[in-house]
Automatic annotation (TrEMBL):
Lineage of the organism: Bacteria, Pseudomonadati, Pseudomonadota, Gammaproteobacteria, Alteromonadales
Keywords attached to this entry: Fatty acid metabolism, Isomerase, Lipid degradation, Lipid metabolism, Lyase, Multifunctional enzyme, NAD, Oxidoreductase
Organism for this UniProt entry: Pseudidiomarina salinarum
Pathway(s): Lipid metabolism; fatty acid beta-oxidation
Gene Ontology MF terms: 3-hydroxybutyryl-CoA epimerase activity; delta(3)-delta(2)-enoyl-CoA isomerase activity; enoyl-CoA hydratase activity; long-chain (3S)-3-hydroxyacyl-CoA dehydrogenase (NAD+) activity; NAD+ binding
Gene that specifies this protein: fadB
Name the UniProt record assigns to this protein: enoyl-CoA hydratase
Keyword Isomerase: yes
Domain 3-hydroxyacyl-CoA dehydrogenase NAD binding: 316-494
Amino acid sequence: MIYQGDSIQVEFVEDGIAELQFAAAGSVNKFDQKTLEEFSNALTKLADTDKLRGVIVTSSKSTFIVGADITEFLTLFADLDQTKTWVAKASRVFDQLEDLPVPTVAAVTGFALGGGCEAALACDYRVADTTATIGLPEVKLGLIPGFGGTMRLPRIIGPDNALEWITTGKNNSAVDAQKVGLVDAVVAPEKLREAALAIVRQAADGELDWQAKRQPKLDPLQANDTELTMTLVTAKGMVAAQAGKHYPAPHAAIKAIEQGAREHREKALKAENEAFVGLTQTDACQAMVGIFLADQQVKGKAKKAAKQATKEIKRAAVLGAGIMGGGIAYQSAYKGVPVVMKDIRQDALDLGMNEASKILDKLVERGKIDNKKLAKVLSSITPTLLDESIKDVDIVVEAVVENPDVKGKVLAQTESVVDKDAIIVSNTSTISIDRLAKSLKDPSRFCGMHFFNPVHKMPLVEVIRGKDTSDETVAAVVAYAARMGKTAIVVNDCPGFLVNRVLFPYLAGFSQMVDEGVDFAGIDKVMEKQFGWPMGPAYLSDVVGIDTADHCTEVMAEGFPSRMPRDKSSAIAKLAEAGRYGQKNGKGFYNYGIDKKGRPVKEKAPEVYEMLGISGKELSADEIIARCMVPMVNECVRCLEEDIVASAAECDIALLYGLGFPPFRGGPFRYLETMGLDKFIELADSYAHLGEMYQVTDGLRDMAKSGKSYLAG
């Protein structure tokens, strides 16, 4: 044995050939601080080993290395000097691998992401098996590669390919990596180790010129000035268009590559280190790392629930076809749970099947699935008009019209048909689960399962616990949601639950401004371009459906009469009364149509300005943002204080995945804490005269006084 650590071991596997194997005690290999130290020590030992002819770098697991240990980031980045020291020291470890006096080969299986990819880049050769996924996803954390990725990747696959990989953070298959020259060979998983050994033997025997393979990574980038300039200009234009001003990491990646292009390794790495350190101090990085950690927390809860679930969902049913029912049925079938789709009308069943078919056809067109998979998914959906077709299922998802009386009757009928241990859930967006549970004889097996539209794209499912819902029911439903590929957030029952409850104060703040004469299109522009929402509140209302939004205001007003009273003269109520329902009928705040090329278009509707009496009153961007966001954040705080949601992190994830809250802001609680609790309270107090939704809670004031954090722990 040449070296033995807790996560790394090195030993000779044949004459002169050593294997450096990552074998962490946990489920995956990752570069935490201890592993990086072991990596350095192992490489030092190798460099001093006599009769060494070559090294293969392998993993004992089904995945190579998933990257750095992100759980350490927020602590590391809290101190600037500590961050500088860490990244400089850590990146030097990868130089040690690159500087070994013998040829090196990385044997890549499963995920090789971030630092895992950078370890492979530091080797002379890379062989991957067909399961490999390779990439540098650091921009998704508001960062750039910090262990030499911006320096080595352009020198291996060319600056144009490298810029695309790094600025998008996309993952790449082994075959795609081979096409651009990152991987030297792709083999079957069972042949990976032998393939790596074969390459290192050839290099050690002089049949392959490994030193010539290594040298370009040590030298300035081999690209002529014109080519490099054009590549950088193109990349800057694409990043400006796609990432915009709110995401500094892709811009910093281009700058680091540009600054290091004409330098040897040491100076190129210095440019990368400086850019990386600068990004660690940005709000965007703090927010996006926070998202990752919150997501891990939520997924951890889902895994725990799945282990606790006493009932496995093997066959499901959806009541109510149409677009939503068809979407739910598709998602269940696509993820391997056969589903019965029941409705009382054949045309609704046809619509539901057509919805599933449309989604699948697009996947076939994009090459994501083949026709065999399409046929398998469709055959897993059984459309029916018959009640008895659902009697043997494990779970029934009720997705009929959003009317409590109708839902109650459907739920009661369902309970009379299915087995006594079948779970029944309602895909309601606002109606109280406890109210609906009164229709059932056994409410312990009932809860809410709120999907978001379009189901196949939106990652969130709210699992709503009623006062009589059993823990077993919640666990089984969370497990089913996870199997469907969804992120489940468990919330307690209240009108609107979590996401819609906090959305309506936001829309109310918007509507109040429109009622005062402020241009709705101008509000949308500020909330999209400056705050970062994927769509502004007027456009969102059109997409949700003005009639739907108006109906929901009645539900919210019933639950929170003093804070969310229904105003029949509000903009949304007026549009609903005028039959302007939004995208569904082509007219809402905006008019919708098709241009000459068949592309959908939206235009400001002049008649709406006249209908709503919009005078063109002007507000600053900061005021527009405050009047929309203060009510939403206040309602999030109330939901946490009332135990509607278990943690601030889960609330952040719910709004990110359910509403598209801007990722660079990290969610409502991250946004609140980035602003500072004292500053937020001062801002909210300046608008308190506008109504209760602008008034902060005593709990928030107490948090500010005590200097506590909602996101601590």
